[in-house]
Each structure stands twice: as C-alpha cells, then as structure tokens.
Amino acid sequence: MFLSSWRVKRQLSLRERALRCLVRREHSRLELQRKLAPHAEESDDIQALLDGFEMRGWLSEKRVVEQTVHTRRARYGVVRIVRELRGKGISEEAISETKPQIMESELEAARAVWRKKFGKLPKNASERGKQIRFMRGRGFDLDVILKLLRGTGEDE
After folding, report:
1. What is the pTM of this model?
2. How deeply is 44 buried, as exposed, middle or buried, from its count of CB atoms within 10 A (0-12, 13-18, 19+)?
3. What backbone torsions phi and psi does residue 90 show, to the nearest 5 degrees?
4. Fold of domain 13-59
5. What Cα–Cα distance (Å) separates residue 45 from each residue in 15, 21, 50, 112?
6. Tens of pLDDT along 47-68?
7. Torsion angle, CA of 41/42/48/49, rounded to 10 degrees?
C-alpha cells in the first residue's frame, strides 16, 4: 500500500515542466510552447510564463541558435541547419545574422563529412551522383559539393 502511493506521480505545474525542459537543453519559444500546450488550460498562461522566462534570460533565441549550430555543424551543411532553425521557430533576423558565420566553414565541414563517408573521388557518373545526393541530403550547397568533387578547395 505504501509503495503504490509513493509511486503516484504528482501533477507538475507549467513552470516546473518548462524548467525541466530547459535543464536538458536550450529550447526555442515555439518548442516550449508546443511541449507545454497539452498541459495548459489557457494559451495565455503559456505566453505569460514564456515572457517571464525571456525577461529573466532563461529562454534565449541566441543560445538556441548557438547550440544548434555547434551540435549540427560537424555533420550538416548550411541548408539543413537553417531549415532546422526555422522549424524551431527562430526568427529570420537571427538566422540571417548566423548564416555568414556558418558559411565560412562550409567547405571544411563538407570535406570532413565527405572524407568520412567516401574518402576518394568518384570513378564514374553513377558514383558521382551517389556522392552528390548524399551530400545534398546532408544540407550542403551544390557549389560547395562540386568544388569538393573537382578536387579543388584543398588549399583554399
């Protein structure tokens, strides 16, 4: 009897739920709003809570952008990272501020991903197409991929 009552989960407040999410990783306002919506009685409750979090600095769009770019840069290209940021509800202004920084290292990131997956230039059109499709799927720009596959850009 005692164990069964001990295991009963208590109802968490919206604030507690939001803080638990933010402890694990940075979340955008839209992400937190989506996670809290099923537990809120009114959407105004969520908006007021998130406004308070932003005022305290607990919720930051800038940190979400930095964390996303940092974790995704080694595996993905600009196109994929930007698409993910838009999906998180990040403003176009914040994305446009970050995009040049990401593009600086685009060729190096593409080269690292390509080396890990393929390691050698394609011998025929079929292999070339396969490599291009893979790299495009990872979000790299076609110009960067073609530069990489031509064998140029090594010394640039």
Report:
1. 0.81
2. exposed
3. -75, 140
4. Arc Repressor Mutant, subunit A (1.10.10)
5. 10, 17, 9, 46
6. 999 999 999 999 999 999 999 9
7. 30
